Amino acid sequence: MPSDPPFDRLIAHNERYVEAFDRSLLTAAPRTGLAILTCMDARIDLAGALGIEIGDAHVIRNAAGLATDDAVRSLAVSQQLLGTRAIVVIGHTRCGLQEADEADLRARIEQSTGASTAMRFGSFADLESTVRAQVEILRRHPVLLRVPVQGLVYEVETGRMRSVV
Amino acid sequence: MPSDPPFDRLIAHNERYVEAFDRSLLTAAPRTGLAILTCMDARIDLAGALGIEIGDAHVIRNAAGLATDDAVRSLAVSQQLLGTRAIVVIGHTRCGLQEADEADLRARIEQSTGASTAMRFGSFADLESTVRAQVEILRRHPVLLRVPVQGLVYEVETGRMRSVV
Asked: How much is the pTM?
């Protein structure tokens, strides 16, 4: 890991992007009517693995891809303001939160920041049942529309997206 | 917007991805030590606009790219379990939540789902000051490490990433 954050490199890269930019006509409403909820994991490549292009879909990401209250907030905005009408939930193998120890995480935070916290981090035991549970939350959530919700597992070892529900 | 959700098309695309897959050696820890917090907006292209490659960075996304409790949960996991040591917050022009009317959103939800909700959706007035406020939350949050936090505004009209803090 570099010792300096790569902020300058990001901005330098952007100069070239601006010169070739041709997406000024994309609208805020996603082209496919899709909202995707997945993990923050750096290995997940929605363009490559699913053919999701820029402009196609809303993408909501958090640690483990959980249907948290904040994810539901985002999905409600996505549906009501920008017209999405289907949801895909994607969990993945080798997630840092699978089998993670909540008490150990709280202890690490206290040791490194001095803050004692009662935060729940979203650790989980079984991947497929966790994806199913998120799909169920979204299918039944009172503030969301009754839209199709699919659950996938992404295998970081093979690149495969497996439908689980 | 297509009337059927594009689930089958996504899975069909994935067959080709699996055949050419060469990322099985990527690790869970992001290569650059970076965590990015941005909006769910379909137009944001982190690979193109900033040169963020698959494996480089954690990506946390929600409606408006806000430093919500759930984003802080994700960032704490990112830092403690997977070693990220810098954060970039990215807001963007023409965000659906800029100048959005919270009461109108609640009314739309009630009309379309029957649910009355007190949910706050994260609407905001000024883009740059909102990005600054998210950066401040993360710089001072007790459960997060004191790491560099940069704030950018992405211009969907030009492709430019402007540093605001």
From this structure: 0.97
* Residue ranges of domains in chain B: 27-163
Give the gap in angstroms from C-alpha A129 to the nearest C-alpha of chain B.
20
Q: Which CATH number fits domain A27-163: 3.40.1280.10, 3.90.226.10, 3.40.50.620, 3.40.1050.10?
A: 3.40.1050.10
Give the chain B residue nearest A78 (alpha carbons): B63
Contact by Cβ (8 Å): A127, A153: yes
Q: Which of residues 48-67 of A touch B (CB under 8 A)?
A: 48-52, 54-63
Do B14 and A26 contact (CB within 8 A), yes or no? no
- Between B68, B76, B100, which is nearest A70 by CB? B68
Minimal CA–CA distance to B110: which of A143, A146, A69, A84?
A143
Evaluate whether ipTM surpasses 0.95: yes
pLDDT digits (tens, 9 = 90+) for A48-97: 999 999 999 999 999 999 999 999 999 999 999 999 999 999 999 999 99
Strand partners, B154: B92, B161
The DSSP output letter for A70 is H
